[in-house]
Design goal:
Layout (H helix, E strand, L loop, with lengths): L6 E5 H9 L2 E4 L5 E3 L2 E5 L1 E6 L8 H8 L6 E3 L3 H14 L5 E6 L3 H4 L2 H9 L4 E7 L33 E5 L5 H12 L7 E7 H5 L1 E5 L6 E2 L9 H12 L4 E5 L1 H5 L3 H11 L3 E3 L14 E4 L6 H9 L2 E5 L5 H4 L10 E6 L2 H4 L5 E4 L2 H12 L9 H15 L11 H11 L4 E5 L4 H8 L7 E3 L8 H12 L4 E7 H6 L3 H8 L4 E6 L4 H10 L22 H7 L3 E5 L2 H11 L6 E6 L32 H14 L7
Parallel strand pairs: 2-12, 5-6, 5-7, 7-8, 8-10, 9-10, 13-14, 13-16, 14-15, 16-17, 17-18, 19-20, 19-21, 21-22, 22-24, 23-24
Antiparallel strand pairs: 1-11, 2-4, 3-4
Helix pairs in contact: 1-2, 3-5, 3-18, 8-14, 10-14, 15-16, 16-17, 16-23
C-alpha cells in the first residue's frame, strides 16, 4: 500500500470485519460479479460465541457489518470450528470460515479444532479474544498468567497447532497480520489454521486506516509445477516398473485432480488404493479403484501394494494407517511421492516430486507416453467387491442387532449417488473406508486427527459447503456424547442432514484394540466394564428431540433403510438410533487388530506383564515391528 489516498477511521475490530468482507475468490458458479469475473467471499462469515474479550469489540463490529458479512451463533467454540473446517473441506480449500472466541476458556476450546485443521491441512481463521495490550487492569477475568513471562497468555497454547500465529496488540497490526493470514490459508503447500490473538482493548481502539486497504482483493490458489529434473527421474522410475500402484490421498481431491487421476491410472494401467482423505477421489465403480489402503484396507488394494515394485503416493502423507505402520510395502519396493509440500514429499525416503497433484500428474503422464504397467489383478478387485456385498448384506434376522457392516449396507441401499458418508472416530471410520461404495466426492472423513466430537458439527459444516449433497453422519454413542450440541444450531438454521447413531454402549473400537490388538483385558471402555454403580440407560431419541431434531430409534436394517429414505424430505436434522453388538464385531471384516484382510497397526504393547496372554501378544508384536521400513 502506498501513502496516497484517503483514510477511514474505524476500530480495529471494525476494520478487520470490513476487510474480511471484501476478500474474494473465483467462484465455480459465482454469486457476485466484479467486472466480468464471478467471485465469492473467501471467508464465508464468522461463527461467534461472545463473551469477555470479544463481545464489545468483535461483537459490535460484526453487528455493524452484518448485512455484508454474516455471523452465526453456535453452542461450543470447538464445534463451531469443526463446522468451519468441514465447510472448507467440502469446498476443497477454495473457501473458508472464521471463528471468534472470548478470552480464556472460549479461546482454549478452539485449540483442539485448530490441531484438527493443522493435521488435515485445512484453512481456518481463528480470531481469539486476548488480554489487555495496555496491561492496565491485569490480571483480568480469565487471564492465564505466566509467572516468568509477561508476554504469555492462554492463546499461546495455539502456537504448536497454528500455521500462522500473531498477536494483535496495536490497531495497525491488522494491516499486516490479516494479509499474512490469508496468504497462508490460500497457499496449497502451507494451508492450515491462522490464529490472531486479538487483545480486547485493541479491538475497540480507533485508527485511521488507508481506504485502499479495503479495496476488494481476489485470492488465487496457485498450482506449482514440478521441477523438470525431479520429473525426469520419477518418469524413469515409473517406466522401469512392472507392477506400480498409486496411493491416492487428500491432496488429489484438494487439487481437484480426480479426473486427471482417473485418466492417468486408466491410460497407464496402474491400480489405485485410497487413504481416508483420498477416498472417493475415484468412484468405487472405477475399474482402477482397488479400494482402501493399509490397516483398514481391502484385500485387493493391500495385495497390490505388497506385490508392487513401485509405490506412487499422490497427495498423501503416508500416515501409519495408510502404510500399515510401514510394513505394507514389499522390501524391494521403491517409493515416489507427489506432494505440494517438500516436507511431505520426502517422507519414508521417497523420491520427491514436488508440485500440485493435477498439473504434476498431467506432466508425468505426458512424460510416460504410451507406457503401460502389467495388467492388475481384476479378479482380486471383483472378489473384494463381492466380499463387501456380503459384509453389507441385509440380515435375515431383523430382530438381531446388526453389525456395522450391515448398518452401512442399509444406508447405502437407502441413498442415491449424491450421498456423502461422513465420520471421524471409533469403529465406523475403518468400516466405512472398507465398505462404503461412494460416487465421486461421496466420502468425507476426518481421520488425520481422528477427533471424537467432529461428527455432528462436521455434518452441519459439510451440508453448508455442499447443500446439493445428501449428508449422512455416522457416529457412535461415544462420540455423540462428547459433542452433539450443534444439532440445536442446525435445527435453528434449518440445515438438514441425517445422523445414524450406532449405540454399542461404550467405546467399542478402543475396547477391541485393548483386548485384541494389545492383549489386554476389557477395562473402562464398555459401560459394562466400567467402575459404575448403575449401568446407564441413555435415551438418545429423547435427547436429540429435545434439541429440535427429528429423532427415532429403529430395530433392524429394514427399518433403518426406511427412516434414512424418509429423512431426505425434512429441512431439519434427523437422528436415527440403532443398537449394534456391544463387544463382538462379526461381519465387518474388522474382527481382529489387523482384520482378515487389513494390515498391522503399530500400537505399543507392554513388555512386562503377569498375564500369559499379554506376554504372548508382546512376542507377536516384536515379529510385526521387525517388518517395518525404517528409512525416513
Amino acid at each position: 500500500m502506498g501513502k496516497s489516498g484517503g483514510t477511514i477511521r474505524l476500530t480495529a475490530a471494525q476494520a478487520m470485519v470490513k476487510w474480511l468482507s471484501v476478500q474474494m475468490t473465483p467462484a465455480a458458479s459465482g454469486s457476485e460479479a466484479v467486472g466480468e469475473q464471478k467471485l465469492d467471499r473467501y471467508i464465508d462469515g464468522m461463527w461467534a460465541i461472545f463473551g469477555h474479550g470479544n463481545v464489545a469489540g468483535m461483537g459490535e463490529a460484526l453487528h455493524a457489518y452484518r448485512d455484508v458479512f454474516p455471523t452465526w451463533r453456535g453452542q461450543n467454540e470447538q464445534t463451531m470450528a469443526h463446522a468451519a473446517i468441514a465447510y472448507a473441506k467440502a469446498k476443497k480449500r477454495t473457501r473458508a470460515m472464521a471463528v471468534t472466541s472470548s478470552i480464556g476458556p472460549g479461546s482454549t476450546n478452539v485449540v483442539t479444532a485448530a490441531a484438527l485443521a493443522h493435521v488435515n491441512r485445512l484453512p481456518l481463521l481463528v480470531v481469539a479474544g486476548d488480554v489487555f495490550a495496555t496491561r492496565r487492569p491485569d490480571p483480568v477475568l480469565q487471564q492465564v498468567e505466566d509467572f516468568d513471562d509477561g508476554t504469555m497468555s492462554a492463546n499461546d497454547c495455539f502456537r504448536p497447532v497454528a500455521r500462522y500465529y500473531d498477536r494483535i496488540s496495536r490497531p495497525e497490526h491488522i494491516l499486516y497480520a490479516l494479509p499474512r493470514a490469508l496468504r497462508m490459508m490460500t497457499d496449497p503447500a502451507n494451508c492450515g489454521p491462522a490464529v490472531l490473538a486479538f487483545c480486547q482493548d485493541v479491538q475497540c481502539e480507533a485508527y485511521d486506516y488507508p481506504e485502499e486497504f479495503f479495496v476488494p482483493r481476489v485470492w488465487h490458489i496457485r498450482r506449482p509445477r514440478p521441477d523438470l529434473d525431479e520429473l525426469a527421474r520419477v518418469a524413469d522410475m515409473v517406466r522401469g516398473a512392472k507392477r506400480p500402484v498409486i496411493i491416492s490421498g487428500g491432496g488429489t481431491i484438494y487439487s481437484q485432480a480426480e479426473d486427471t487421476l482417473a485418466k492417468f491410472a486408466t491410460r497407464h494401467r496402474i491400480p489405485v488404493a485410497e487413504t481416508q482423505a483420498g477416498k472417493s477421489g475415484l468412484p468405487q465403480a472405477h475399474p482402477m479403484n482397488f479400494g482402501a489402503s493399509g490397516v483398514d484396507g481391502s484385500a485387493a488394494a493391500n495385495t497390490a501394494s505388497q506385490n508392487a515394485d513401485l509405490v506412487i503416493g499422490v497427495g498423501t502423507r503416508f500416515q501409519d494407517f495408510t502404510t500399515g505402520s510401514r510394513t505394507l510395502f514389499g522390501e524391494g519396493a521403491r517409493l515416489v511421492s507427489i506432494n505440494i509440500h517438500g516436507y511431505d514429499a520426502a517422507k519414508h525416503g521417497a523420491e520427491s516430486l514436488v508440485g500440485d497433484a493435477k498439473v504434476t500428474l498431467e506432466a508425468l503422464g505426458e512424460a510416460l507416453g504410451d507406457y503401460r504397467a502389467e495388467a492388475p489383478d481384476e479378479a482380486a478387485r471383483e472378489d473384494w467387491l463381492r466380499a463387501v456385498d456380503t459384509y453389507c448384506a441385509r440380515p435375515e434376522d431383523q430382530a438381531a442387532k446388526p453389525t456395522d457392516g450391515q448398518v452401512i449396507g442399509a444406508v447405502q441401499r437407502a441413498t442415491g449417488p449424491d450421498a456423502v458418508a461422513m465420520c471421524a472416530a471409533g469403529t465406523m471410520p475403518g468400516a466405512l473406508k472398507l465398505l462404503w461404495k461412494p460416487s465421486r466426492g461421496g466420502y468425507h472423513m476426518e481421520y488425520g486427527y481422528s477427533c471424537m466430537g467432529y461428527e455432528v458439527a462436521g455434518a452441519m459444516g459439510l451440508k453448508l459447503g455442499a447443500p446439493e449433497r445428501d449428508v449422512i453422519c455416522f457416529v457412535g454413542d461415544g462420540s455423540y456424547m462428547l459433542a452433539n450440541s450443534e444439532l440445536a444450531t442446525a435445527v435453528m438454521r434449518r440445515i438438514p442432514f441425517t445422523v445414524v447413531l450406532t449405540d454399542n454402549r461404550g467405546y467399542g473400537c478402543i475396547n477391541r484394540l485393548q483386548t485384541m490388538g494389545c492383549g489386554g483385558e476389557p477395562f473402562n471402555n464398555m459401560y459394562v466394564d466400567c467402575n459404575v454403580e448403575v449401568q446407564p440407560e441413555i435415551d438418545y431419541v429423547m435427547h436429540a428431540a429435545a434439541m429440535g431434531a427429528h429423532a427415532v430409534k429403529v430395530a433392524g436394517t429394514d427399518a433403518l433403510e426406511a427412516e434414512v429414505a424418509a429423512a431426505r424430505s425434512r429441512n431439519i436434522p434427523t437422528v436415527i438410533v440403532i443398537e449394534t453388538p456391544a463387544k463382538d464385531f462379526p461381519g465387518t471384516g474388522l474382527e481382529t487388530s489387523a482384520g482378515d484382510h487389513g494390515f498391522f497397526w503399530d500400537v505399543a504393547v507392554p513388555e512386562v506383564s503377569e498375564r500369559q496372554k499379554q506376554r504372548d501378544r508382546f512376542q507377536e508384536y516384536l515379529g510385526q515391528i521387525a517388518n517395518a521400513r525404517l528409512v525416513n
